[in-house]
Amino acid sequence: MKKKSRIVYEGEVYTIEWYLDDMGKSQPKEYYDELTEDRKDKLFHLVKMLADIGKIFNIQKFRHEDDKIYAFKPKPDRFLCFFFEGSKIIITNAFEKKTDKLSPREKERALKAKADYITRCKKGTYYD
């Protein structure tokens, strides 16, 4: 995936990107691409607000899920992410929420993606 297609949105405060695995695939981007235009618009509105203003004040729409993992919450979807140096936010995974609590499996997936991203950035192999 090229640099431009990796970027979800570049705002005044943050640049928001899709996480890419070591094969160049992005689960959250693939999930997003399958959504209806209405559901895509809901996420994009939240992404744009956070990237341009630096904060989403409604915890019903963006929330800290512990372990420095956050969630964009455009109903019924969830897009997990983390903040990274250089004013970046990396969206790690996406899914349709079906229960009240965040799935431990999805959170673990986000934590693994975060660890992989940090490791590959330190090695200088993420942004080839």
Verbal overview:
The protein is an alpha+beta fold and 128 residues long. It has one domain (3-121): YaeB-like fold. Helices cover 38% and strands 24% of the residues. The chain contains 4 helices and 6 strands; from the N terminus they run αββααββββα. Strand 5 and strand 6 (88-96) form a beta hairpin. The longest helix has 20 residues, at 104-123. It starts with a helix and ends in a 5-residue tail after the last helix.
Features:
128 residues; alpha+beta; YaeB-like fold; six-stranded mixed beta sheet; 6 strands
Topology record:
Layout (H helix, E strand, L loop, with lengths): L2 H4 E4 L4 E4 L8 H7 L3 H17 L8 E3 L5 E3 L4 E8 L3 E9 L7 H20 L5
Parallel strand pairs: 2-6
Antiparallel strand pairs: 1-2, 3-4, 4-5, 5-6
Major sheet? 6 strands, mixed
Shape call:
globular
C-alpha Rg, in Å?
A: 14 Å
How much of the sequence lies in strands comes to 15-25%
CATH superfamily: RelE-like
SS-based class: alpha+beta
Helix content: 25-40%
DSSP summary: helix tally: 4
The first-level CATH class is given as Alpha Beta
From the 3D structure, determine the CATH topology: YaeB-like fold
What sequence of helices (H) and strands (E) makes up the elements? HEEHHEEEEH
The assigned CATH architecture is: 2-Layer Sandwich
Number of domains: 1
Average pLDDT number: 94
Q: Would you identify the regions where 5 or more consecutive residues have pLDDT less than 50?
A: none
- Quote the distance from N terminus to C terminus: 10 Å
